[in-house]
Structure formats: C-alpha cells, structure tokens
C-alpha cells in the first residue's frame, strides 16, 4: 500500500516521494522495476527468492520490461547475467547462501572483465548442516571476489542502496559489478515504512543514461571486442592492478554518489554510520540489522554516564580502513561482532580487518574484542548488545583483553544430554520378505516380476517413520512408501534438499529408519556415486567384513522440488558412469520447498510464484522438461515413470529398479506426486488428480528397459482417456487456462501433450526408436 505524503514530511527532499510499507525483498524488486533493468537471470533460494517473485508479479501486470530468465541453477543464473552484461544492457540478480557459493566461480570472472551489474545478496547461513536463516557466512565469501559491497540495515536502505549501486557500478572510475547485502529474514521479510521516488523518471535522471559513453560491449559490430582472453604475466598482474585501483576508486565515488542522493532525497548513507562516537570511550562494531538495535543500547549506557558509541559500515568493499581508524582513535576498547566465523582465523573477517586498520594507521592503544554472534539466524536483543558492550567496558577497566576471541550466545555441549536413538534400526530380515520375485529371461534379457496382493505387503516396515512435517495431502510420502514396498532388504538413501528432506530431518529428530545422507540439489547424484563406489571397494578389500553387510544393499537418491533442474548435470554424469544406484524423482511440478516457483518440470500455462497470472501474461511461457526421456538417452539399463494412483504398476517397477541397480547399473524413475498447497487443490484429492494426469496422457506410464520402450498403462486402450482440460480443472493453479482468453496456451499445451504421447506410442511399437 502506498501513501502520498507532503514534502515537508520527507526532510529536505527535492523530488516527489511517497511512502510504502514493504519488506526488504519487496524494496529490492521495487527499485529494480523503477530502474527497469534489461535482464534478470535468477534461481530460487530462500530468503532471496521473493525478489524474483515480486518482479514476476509486476511483469505479469505489465509494470516493467525486465526479461526474467529462470536459470537451471545459480551458476547458470550468474552466467546469464554475465553474458547479458557483456552485451551492454543493465543486469540484475538476487541470491543467498549456498546458491551464492554455487555461482561464486563466476563472480571474479565478471569483476575481472569489468562488466557492471547489481546483485542483491540476501544473507543466509552457508550449510551444512542445513540452516536457511540469516547470518553473514555467505557475505564473507564475497569479500575476495572483486565486487564493491554495500550494506543495508533496513528495507529503506535496501531500496536506496539498490538505486545508488547501479550508478556506482557504471561510473567510469569504477566499472565493476556491485553487491547489495541485506540480512535474510531480519530485513528481507520484515515490513517497514519506506520512502521511495514517486516518479520513475526521477530515478532514471539520478542513475543517468545507459550505457556509459565509450563503454564497449559485444553487440557493436563496428567495434568487435574480445572478452576474457587468455592472459599471461605481466598482463594479468596489470589487469588485477587496474581492477584494484577501480575498487579503491569505488570508495570516493560512492561518497560522491551518496551526497548527491542525500541532496535529492534527504536520506544520507555515509561510508560509516557513526552513532554518538564523538567522545566515545567504548564502542561496538556491528553490521546491518543488528547495528540499529545497538543504538538503543548506546542511549541506555549514555544515560548511565558511560561514553558509549556504535559503528556500522555502509560499505565493506572497499573496506573503509582509514575512516574506521579515525573513528576509533580515541576509543579505549571496541567489541567487534561478526555474524560469521573465519574458521581458524582467531576471529571473523571484520574483526581482523578492523585490527589491520588500527595497526596500519598507528593505533596500538585501542583494545579489540572479537565475538562471533547470531549464527543461523539467532536473534540479537538489547540484552546481547549490553553484553557486547560489557566486554569492552571490562577491557577498558582492566587495561587488557582477557578473552580476545570467542563465540557469543552458544550453548556448551553436555555429553549427558546427547541425542539418544529413538527409532531402532530396521531389521534386515523384516525387510527381505521374499514376497516379490524378479526373474530374468535369458533369451530376451527382460525381467518378469510377480508381486502378491498389495495388502500382503503392508506388513513390511515403513522406511520413513510417522511424524514428518509435510503439508496435509502431500503426495511425497505416500508415493515414496509405495515405491519402497517394492524394494527388498536394506537401503542407503540420499535426499536432495527439498520438501522430503526438510520435513523429515528437524534436528535432533529424524524420520528415517534407514541410513540417510543429505546433499544439495546440484550434487546429490555425485555424492551417492561416491558412497556406492566406496561400498564396493571397501567390501572388496575386506574392510567391512566385521559388519556382516549384505551384498544386496540398494542405494537410492530421492530428488524433487526442481532437483532435476539444478542437479541434472551430475545426474547425467552418474548415469554415464553407470553406478549401481537408483535415482527417484518425485515431480511436484515446481520448487515447492522455497515457495512454489516455476521449475523446468512446470507445464506451460501453469501458475507459480514466478509464473504469475496477470493482465498481460498468464502462467509459465514454455513447455515442461521430460526428465525420463533425457535420462533414457544416456542408455542406462532401466528408466520408468510411475504414480501412486496405479500402485501395482509402481511396485513392479520398483522391484525391477532394484534388480537393475544391484546387477547392471543406474536406474532412473519419475513419479508424479500431488502438492495440494501449491497446486491449489483439495487435500484429499491427490490420488484422483495424479490419476487424471495419467488418463489425460500428460503423464504416461511406461518403462525403458535396455533401450526398449513399453507402455505399461494405455488409457486409450482402456477407454479411460479424458480431455486434458478435465485434469486442469482439478487444480486452482490451472483453472485460468480453461478461460477463453487463455485458449492459445491451452491449445499449445494440448498439442504438446499429444505429440509426446504419440512419440511414446511410436517407441512402444518400434523397439529401434
């Protein structure tokens, strides 16, 4: 909601402004839409995902012209942005945590070739173990990438810094990509009152014309350039020197820009935000959201006669070394709080840089205390601020620092309170029932499977215990447990990050009764490959004999929630190496664990939080990915599709999958599962909906056994085929497609589904296809 306000209410502003009440993520998107960037390459990751979501919603209603490109992963999104920046346009992105680390290889590439852009880093814990809350561990990885870094203590700063960042990036003395950092969830999701430019043209006037005069790009045919050439010494060291000069130029250029911005808006962001430091004897140095709360603590201490002050940088690259040394020259003791550790460095990055600043500028007297605080999103309260000041006060009174470095706010371990096993390990004999038989035809090589009535399999123990935290009606666990009914004996399971992983492993509890491993989307297949090969090699060497392990371990990787977008490359690599394992994809048609963003498995026209329905665009604009066919093209022994709506079919395929994974190589399976929350469907309708998906031929059931395709259920032959539109009507995310104004998207979807179904039928009829 926007509220028009009078000029005098906004200080000394020279331009018309208005007030909105929004979060940091919303303000990053709002600034981007006012700038009207050319390109945004992005990939969902909490807590930065909302930036793309808000821009997509505005895009669907025609509020900006930014081309939003959903990449296959953060590394891909960084490549999209780099390529777009070389082509001379304005480029934007947002990411967090492990996603930033996945793209980090591209960060020095872009800064080293001097192509500007703006990226929001919504700071979050770098894991594992997995934690999605805010600290600065991802930010500290950014310090050596060659990007100037601006800091945002609240949503107002997010908006303002995003506008100033582009002007800084494109300045002729800088010409570097710029990072805008805010605190995940503390700033990204908390709503505050924010003053904004009322008119887009005022934003454009401040930022200036684009591209900067004389700036080279790859689309100028009259001035072809070579980007990123191979470079030897001494050219490389000279290039690095020039980049270093540009980085240090960013400090005085930013200082000039922030003064211009202050004159225009009445809001000023000096390089250091100093609070009551004019005569301070003790101080605390904090960054971003915590730096605002500490000001209240300063006031409380001042009321007690203690000369306290606080320091917070608005820029940390280049590091404002001289300004910090000047601010601390008369301070007797300062506590530096780092929201991330530089493991083994006797303090976080900021404390060591503060110490270097003091040493460089001749200050040997100010005592420095280092404390690591707030990791994993641990809240920071006024009481904590008082404790940080107390460390400085004690040091000032003693004339020395008793404990130079330590963590603050942690709980010492107590061996007596170590987590105890709640679930007993599964009994191997209980898991190997002998009720399922798999036989190989020696002539054809094909497998025949016999399964008993499904009710007789109910006595097999569940591999995932009750008590997970999935949404009502979630199809993941009914689908997985049905698949596991066809697996005999012990398994080792690896779960990609995703809903299935998150809701079953809330420390200190776990729903997994078999051995479980987690790794991130992009590397699960490679990780399980390592486990598989280590098992067989250690068994060959006799190192596992004392454990009396069976030879028929089954290794299973569970993926979903878009894991076969960002994880496709490693999965194909594992398939080409043909490791003895199963990859099972639960397809819920989106990145559901991060808020229902589109994935490449999302069908055309379907609504997600990054394929919104609006006045100028309705749903996803390109067709869905066929992972089963992609994996079949790697010529692995067995590929299948399945559905809980056809339980006998899925159990038989699970038994086949186990045989091939134990005897021949990699198996890939894909099961369609319902996500009522994000499909906008009734909780109890999941099985009916995925049944309709099969009967409409959207999700055909088939297997590819040693390269030969066989349809295992044909709704046409059963006289059960239903129109695709009947399936779409069962979900709120697709009901718009049945309206006349969206007939083009519906027809495109129908034609593609029919084309793919006919392709499968042709392969079924011809073993050479």
Automatic annotation (TrEMBL):
A GO MF term: thiamine pyrophosphate binding
InterPro entries: PFOR_II, Pyruvate:ferred/Flavod_OxRd, Pyrv_Fd/Flavodoxin_OxRdtase_N, THDP-binding, TPP_enzyme_TPP-bd, Transketo_C/PFOR_II
Annotated family: Belongs to the pyruvate:ferredoxin/flavodoxin oxidoreductase family.
Record's protein name: Pyruvate synthase
Residue ranges of domain Thiamine pyrophosphate enzyme TPP-binding in the record: 553-658
Signal peptide: none
Domain of life according to the entry: Bacteria
Pfam families: PFOR_II, POR_N, TPP_enzyme_C
Keywords: 4Fe-4S, Electron transport, Iron, Iron-sulfur, Metal-binding, Oxidoreductase, Pyruvate, Transport
Domain Pyruvate flavodoxin/ferredoxin oxidoreductase pyrimidine binding as annotated: residue spans: 31-258
GO biological process, one term: response to oxidative stress
Ranges where the Pyruvate:ferredoxin oxidoreductase core domain occurs: 280-384
PANTHER family cross-referenced by the UniProt entry: PYRUVATE-FLAVODOXIN OXIDOREDUCTASE-RELATED (PTHR32154:SF0)
């Amino acid at each position: 909601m926007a509220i028009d306000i009078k000029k005098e209410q906004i200080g000394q502003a020279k331009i018309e402004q208005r007030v909105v009440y929004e979060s940091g993520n919303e303000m990053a998107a709002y600034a981007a839409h006012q700038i009207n960037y050319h390109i945004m390459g992005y990939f969902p990751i909490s807590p930065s995902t909302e930036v793309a979501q808000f821009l997509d919603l505005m895009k669907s209603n025609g509020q900006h012209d930014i081309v939003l490109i959903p990449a296959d992963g953060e590394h891909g999104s960084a490549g999209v942005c780099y390529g777009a920046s070389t082509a001379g346009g304005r480029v934007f992105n947002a990411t967090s945590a492990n996603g930033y680390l996945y793209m980090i290889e591209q960060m020095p590439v872009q800064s080293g070739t001097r192509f500007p852009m703006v990226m929001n880093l919504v700071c979050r814990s770098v894991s594992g173990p997995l934690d999605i809350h805010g600290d600065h561990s991802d930010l500290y990885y950014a310090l050596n990438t060659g990007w100037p870094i601006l800091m945002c203590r609240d949503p107002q700063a997010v908006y303002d810094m995003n506008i100033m960042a582009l002007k800084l990036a494109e300045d002729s003395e800088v010409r570097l990509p710029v990072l805008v950092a805010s605190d995940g969830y503390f700033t990204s999701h908390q709503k505050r009152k924010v003053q904004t430019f009322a008119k887009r043209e005022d934003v454009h006037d401040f930022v200036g014309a684009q591209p900067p005069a004389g700036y080279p790009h790859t689309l100028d045919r009259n001035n072809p350039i070579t980007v990123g050439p191979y470079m030897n010494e001494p050219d490389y060291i000279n290039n690095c020197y020039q980049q270093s000069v540009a980085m240090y130029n960013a400090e005085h250029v930013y200082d000039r820009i922030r003064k211009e911005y202050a004159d225009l808006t009445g809001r000023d962001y000096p390089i250091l935000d100093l609070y009551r430091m004019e005569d301070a004897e003790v101080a605390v140095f904090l960054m971003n959201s915590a730096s605002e709360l500490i000001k209240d603590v300063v006031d409380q201490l001042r009321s007690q006669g203690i000369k306290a002050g606080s320091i917070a940088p608005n820029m940390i690259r280049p590091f404002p070394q001289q300004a910090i040394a000047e601010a601390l020259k008369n301070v007797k003791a300062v506590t530096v709080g780092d929201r991330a550790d530089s493991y083994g460095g006797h303090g976080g990055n900021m404390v060591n840089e503060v110490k270097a600043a003091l040493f460089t500028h001749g200050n040997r007297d100010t005592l420095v205390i280092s404390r690591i605080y707030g990791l994993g999103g641990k809240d920071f309260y006024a009481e904590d601020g008082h404790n940080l000041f107390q460390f400085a006060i004690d040091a000032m009174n003693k004339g020395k620092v008793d404990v130079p470095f330590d963590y603050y706010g942690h709980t010492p371990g107590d061996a007596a309170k170590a987590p105890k096993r709640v679930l007993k390990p599964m009994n191997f004999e209980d898991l190997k029932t002998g009720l399922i038989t798999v036989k190989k035809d020696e002539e054809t090589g094909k497998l025949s499977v016999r399964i008993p009535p499904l009710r007789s399999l109910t006595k097999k123990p569940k591999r995932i215990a009750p008590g997970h935290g999935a949404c009502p009606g979630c199809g993941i666990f009914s689908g997985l447990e049905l698949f596991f009914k066809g697996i005999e004996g012990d398994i080792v399971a690896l779960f990609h990050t995703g809903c299935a992983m998150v809701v079953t492993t809330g420390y200190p509890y776990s729903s997994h009764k078999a051995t479980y491993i987690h790794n991130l989307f992009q590397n699960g297949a490679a990780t399980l490959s390592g486990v598989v090969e280590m098992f067989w090699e250690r068994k060959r060497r006799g190192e596992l004999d004392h454990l009396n392990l069976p030879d028929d371990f089954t290794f299973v990787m569970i993926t979903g929630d878009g894991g076969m977008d960002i994880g496709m490359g490693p999965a194909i690599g594992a398939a080409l190496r043909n490791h003895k394992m199963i990859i099972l994809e639960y397809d819920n048609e989106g990145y559901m664990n991060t808020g229902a963003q589109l994935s490449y498995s999302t069908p055309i026209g379907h609504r997600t939080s990054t394929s919104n329905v609006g006045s100028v665009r309705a749903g996803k604009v390109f067709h869905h990915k066929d992972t089963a066919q992609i994996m079949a093209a790697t010529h692995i022994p067995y590929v299948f599709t399945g559905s809980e709506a056809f339980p006998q079919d899925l159990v038989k395929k699970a038994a086949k999958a186990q045989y091939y994974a134990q005897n021949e190589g990699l198996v890939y399976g894909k099961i369609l599962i319902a996500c009522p929350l994000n499909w906008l469907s009734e909780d109890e309708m999941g099985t009916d909906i995925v049944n309709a998906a099969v009967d409409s031929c959207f999700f055909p059931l088939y297997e590819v056994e040693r390269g030969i395709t066989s349809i295992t259920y044909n709704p046409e032959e059963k006289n059960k085929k239903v129109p695709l539109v009947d399936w779409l009507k069962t979900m709120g995310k697709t009901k718009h497609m049945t309206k006349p104004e969206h007939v083009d998207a519906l027809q495109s979807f129908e034609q593609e589904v029919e084309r793919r179904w006919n392709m499968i039928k042709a392969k079924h009829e011809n073993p050479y296809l």
